[in-house]
Protein: Ornithine decarboxylase
Amino acid sequence: MQKFETAKAAALSMRPDVPVYCFRPDVLVEDVTGFMAAFPGDTAYAVKTNGEPMVLETLAKAGVKIFDVASPGEFAAVRDVAPDAEMLYMHPVKAQSDIRLALETYGIRVMALDHEDEVAKILRIVHALDLDPATITLFIRIQTKGSAAYELSKKFGAAPAHAVELLQRCHRIGFKVGICFHVGSQIQDPETYERALGSAHWVRSRAGVPLAGLDVGGGFPAEYGRDPKSKKPDMPGIGQIMSRLRGDIDGWGFSETPLVAEPGRVVVARAFSLIVRVLLRKGRRLYINDGIWASLSDSWTGKITLPARFIPDPARTRRNGDAKVIAPFRVCGATCDSVDILSRPFWLPETVDTGDWIEIGHIGAYSMSLRTRFNGFYPDTFVEVTTPFDAGGKPEGYASLETMGE
Ligand SMILES: *Cc1c(COP(=O)(O)O)cnc(C)c1O
Structure:
């Protein structure tokens, strides 16, 4: 991989017409070790957030020993780069053949579920392979309520009374049991974990069975940009969220229970930025070479404001407008699809024009992992960059990130 000090240096040297991902391994190591130090339990990285081999490898080297996986593709990706790592198979709804693969081939001994038919599926394979249920931990996924940019509790999770019954059933069979939840991605309300822990407490006290673990899932918010027009208060930073979570864990009486967290976004978001090129400027619209069907689907909901920095093409000698005036530009994606337009504008100098580049920061989560080949566009160029996106002074231009560099 080519190495540059900054994304700007990469853009000016490569003059790329295709999107370029800028990987910052040092930032990844810093963020994951920070998380592991602050969380009072085990850290299992959620592979779906970004399963690139360079990411998994860097995490394993940084000391991550557990990975949260959901499919055979993810089992293999982890095994390839970290043969000794433990895997937690936390998808509540699994194919029978995948359960077999997990137990038989990959030696996975931790799974999640939220329904009795899933217990039956698992038990069938446990019997077929003549395994002792006591060697396996089943986490019962409970419903949670909260506010996240991506709400996931509507899809998975047993209601409290149902969860009690599932815990008792699995315990009776001889499995070790735990409680897990996943509050959704990028929580937007700091009370979210506390409410989920309250539910877990209720379920535990009604079930009356020994708990082998409590898994608090993911959802930890990563830092993004700020829309200059937004009136919403800022979310507390990860440090504050963590200290509250530690307090709530004690408060609900879980400090003696083995704990696991499954962070994805907060670990990997800052580790990548993306260089895109302006293919055409039409008034206050910019047509770029990436979009919602490639690296930018995560921002499509409008709940996430991506920070961005302007990289003017020095080859352009004539420009219109005032470079000091920052204006909102509508950003249209590369495909011919009319929904391929970002829901939030990028705030950039008025002088931005065809041929310029934009570096979009904090793009490591749910970007590479969600890109499609739609319309034949598939960004897949990587370089290594040594300077963090938000290092140094204010960027020359930005999309809704006023606090950058302050
Ligand atoms: C997606 C997912 C995660 C990671 O969520 P982030 O918000 O990226 O931290 C963790 N656990 C489960 C079960 C998930 O589905």
